[in-house]
What we know:
Layout: H1 18-32, H2 47-71
Helix pairs in contact: 1-2
Amino acid sequence: MARGSDNTSNQIVVPQAKNAMEQFKYEVTSELGIQTPNDGYWRTMTTRDTGAIGGHMVRKMIEMAERSLAGRGGTLR
């Protein structure tokens, strides 16, 4: 089995965020114009598409973190 294919490397750190992250994935997919799998099985998608989705999610999360830090003086708490 390939590393990461058992989904253990993609565990949600904050379990309460699971639903929000799932919704976020669909929002990003829509923004990028990528067709979501009808059956909900993401592993049938191309690596290029899933990489684009993940990369865009990370960029947006970094932007949100930067805005949050800028709004409170740039300190981590």
